[in-house]
Structure formats: structure tokens, C-alpha cells
């Protein structure tokens, strides 16, 4: 997926703190004396250009919804997901709150008292259909605020043609096997393992390696443990891979999109990715469906039983008081037809149980859906966005520098910024 699924989504805690307790937005939505209501929707655009802009998706829903509810109009705006964090932060800082936003985690908004609980803006029958694991991630002080809209999990992609040429018969299950295979692939002139630790999505790549060492961003008690011995060990191994030339050059500054593009062009033997890789492969036209496959993510001692799961959420702002209209709109939005339409268009996964059951019949997506129950998600802490942004911009330095020092600085930020 794009960021937090986009892998990045969001708004700084400082900006939210500045507007905590503020009143209604300045012109974000309106209601007239004749009972007509206009809602504003602001979301991330997952498309690659005008032809598949997410604005088209939401405009079609808004039109169909208006036909069913003539007194409610929904004005739609989306921005490219790479610009979404900045644009959404600006809206909040300027108190231009939309009625509905898709793309950011809920806890910081909930902490600032800006959004409705899920129970206020979603019928119980619709809420009960949301995948429980992802719904729980949007909680603040035990109350559900974030409504998962689109989801994703991760697996290892590998190029079967490159494997065959290098004499590799099966995808690696352990780090040692991955290192051996990457060296064999490098000897044949291709990139052994694609390791994106640039600012686009370093937090995702790193977490999958941390999990492989028995680590993660949180301890078993739920406290930040970014500089744990397990995480340091994982980064040391990753650094070793890079220094041996078993990855692409300069992995610490390489973005995910570049690694995915290289894999799609048939130049990378292995990498980690989501279902969103599939349309990139298809568009490149270099690999057929029989030329590549997916497998479990290798860990230090064996394949991961818990991989990364990510989701982008819908939140409903309470600043204009349009609870009833928002509830009608969101109940309409979460129909399976719209969930499936979105996920097929952008090769992502649903947030509802019923849509996931339908999509699970497609072999291209079944392996990713299988990973959801045991997936590990990003921390639901109110300062996670601050920590995540620092991970994106500094973690890559650990490949050529000191993993312990880089992780220690991140841990200090996490524990001193209200986590």
C-alpha cells in the first residue's frame, strides 16, 4: 500500500495540540434552514495519475449517495498520498476541518477531542463487519475512533527466473539462506535483495526485519522498545548485507517505489512488498505472472508467523456537528461493492470481513489476506506519527553508521514526546 498503508499518513502531535478544544471549522461544511447539509470529504489519492485518481472513486460514491439522500451533498477533495501528510496537517492547523477524512490514524485527533467515536457515526451492523484487528488499532483510551478503510499485509516477492539462473530452488526461509541466495544472485549480475530504507517507507522495511529478530517497535507490555537488542541485531545484519553488496547501492537512501520498479523490470531477485506491487509489475510488462511468486517473510530462525499489517483509516470530525449526515454517508460508503471496487482498483485489501471473504477467493490476494489475523501493526500511540517521521528520515543512516546510536535517538524521541 502507499503509506502507513501508505505507510506514512499523518499529522504531528504538536499541530493537533495547538488546535485541541477548538470549535467548529471555518466553512468546512454547511447546513441550511431547509434541512439540506453539505459535507466535506478530504482523502489520500492512491492513483498513479488522472486516469485512476481516487477523486473519481469518491465522486461516484458521493453522486450515488446524493441520489439516495437528496438533502445531503458531499464535496470531495483528494491529494496525492505523498502530499497528504502536509496537506492534512495544514487543514487542521488552520481549523478547516473536513467532516470526513481518509488516510490518517485516529488517536491524535481523538486525544484532541476533534472526532466522533465510531459508535456515533457508524451503525452497529456496519461496525461489527469491520476486521476486528484493524478496528482495535484506532482506539484511544479503550474507545474506537478510527474506522479502517483499506488494508494491506506484506510478503516476500521473488523472481523465479533469476532464482533458476542462480541455481536457487526455493525462496529463503531464514536470514542466512537469504544472504546466501542474495550473494548467488549478485554473482549473476542482478540485485540480490532490494532493501528500501529511504524516507518513503523505512518504518515498514525495518519493522519486518525487527520482527524477524524477535523485536518490534513495542515491548510485550506495550512500551516503546525501538532500541532493543533484537532491533539493533536486525539492523546490524541488514548493514552487513548492504556492505557485502548483496543489496542495491545505497539502501539507506533508496525509496520503496524505486525498489519495486526495479523488481518489476526484472533486475531484483527478492524484496518485501504488498499487493500494490502487482499492478506495477503488470505495467512494466517485463514479468509474466509465472515469472514471480510470493512467500513468507524470512526471519532469523525461520519464516515470520506474524508479518506487517497496515491500514488507512476514516475519521469523522465533530467540529461542524453533522453527526447524523456523516453516519448515513459512512454506512453507505462501507458497502462491500465499494470496498471491493477500491481494492481491485488499487490492489489493496478490504477492511470489512465480508469483502475480505469475497476477495480471498482470488489466488493473487489470498496469501496476503491469510496474514491479517496474525499481523503486527504500527503502534497506536498518540505520538507515533512524530516517531514514524523520524524513522523515515534517519533510520537509513544505520546502514553506514551505528545501528545502536540511531535506534537510541529514536527511542529517546518516542519516550520524551508523549508516547
Q: Kindly, what is the distance between the CA atoms of the first and last residues, rounded to a whole number of angstroms?
A: 25 Å
Which segments are poorly predicted (pLDDT under 50) over 5 or more consecutive residues? 6-29
Helix content: 40-55%
Computed over alpha carbons, the radius of gyration is: 21 Å
Structural class: alpha+beta
DSSP strand count:
13
Choose one word for the global shape: globular
Q: How many DSSP helices?
A: 20
Q: Roughly what is the average pLDDT, rounded to an integer?
A: 90
β-strand percent reads 5-15%
Describe the sheet with the most strands: 7 strands, mixed
Description:
- Strands 1, 2, 3, 4, 7, 12 and 13 form a seven-stranded mixed sheet that branches. Strands 9-10-8-11 form a four-stranded mixed sheet.
- The protein is built from 20 helices and 13 strands.
- It is of the alpha+beta class.
- Helix 19 runs antiparallel to helix 20.
Summarize the entry for a quick read:
This protein has 419 residues and is α+β, with helices and mostly antiparallel strands. The chain is built from 20 helices and 13 strands. α13 packs across α14, α16 crosses α17 and α19 runs antiparallel to α20.
